[in-house]
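User: My collaborator sent over this chain with a note saying "see what the structure looks like." That's all I know about it. Can you take a look?
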Amino acid sequence: MCFHWLCCSGIDEDSNHSPSLAKHWAWREGKRPLVLGHRGVPRAAQENTIAALEAAVALGIDGVEIDVFVTADNVVVLFHDEDVGRLTGGKATGSIADMTYAQVSELRIAKVLDATGTGQMQEFESEQRIPTLEQVLNQFPTLRINIEMKAYGPKWGRRHWGTAVAKVIRSCNAADRVIVTSFDFFMLRELEREYPGLQSGFAYDDNMSGSLAEASEQWYKRSDDEDQIGAFEARDSPGFVRWLMESNQIGKAVGSTVVDLEWTCIDSNTIDKFHKRGHAVGAYVFFPFDVSFVQTPLSDEEEETVIRRLVAEGVDWLETDDPEKLMALLTRIESE
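Assistant: Without extra context I'll predict from the sequence alone. Here is the result:
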């Protein structure tokens, strides 16, 4: 079976063309893994808002993970959902990708909303505006940030988001304090083309085989190699995703230096394999608040067992919805 859709970048070896991670904050070399607040600190303030990032700074955690969308007129803003309904408390609908920034700036993240994905409403201190990435990078100059270019499966038509994000990072002189991740390899390719050397990489979860198969066909059909198309059934499987991850095919195609993994994707030698390639490895999401995407619920005791294993295996960062709980656990582990 030919995988031309992954190999068309011209990068053949199991390495990348980005600078070394040796002096970058994401590369821990056996030190305590960094704690990144997932979407800020979503238990303290609405996710992906200035208030949620201020809460992260107040806690003194290492950094945050944020999600970004790009508006119809190419402004990069912080937002998680494909539809704005949940986070606006039902006061609006539609995708930020189809709105202008003027329209987005009129929206508010509701004071009362379904923050956990369970239908149970949560009340916060006040409504919040949707910030731009430029605003965040300028307002929090010392905060380490994993910028996730949001994608619910790769989309060829949104590949320009990578260019838009790269331009904001360059204009804010923020390359040394960010990494960029995405479930969309089209976006990552364009990011690297616009700003070679940014520390970036693909994100994997344990439920993505179907979207990868669909996206691979999109890429494949645009390669002008129609004779190679076929047998996509084998790519629509967890086994294909495992092969894709372990072989680093996407990493080689987009020039990755980091990889962000749902913890369920990590077996006993996954972290070591990526470290030997010079990749920093992150894992998500621990002590989740929004449980709508959780495929494998764990008790606190089970979660602690997983975290201890990942720490022992040298994971570089951990993303969490409860950074206080995770920091306390890491402190206990360090003291043992």
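A starting point for your reply to your collaborator: The two ends are 50 Å apart (CA to CA).
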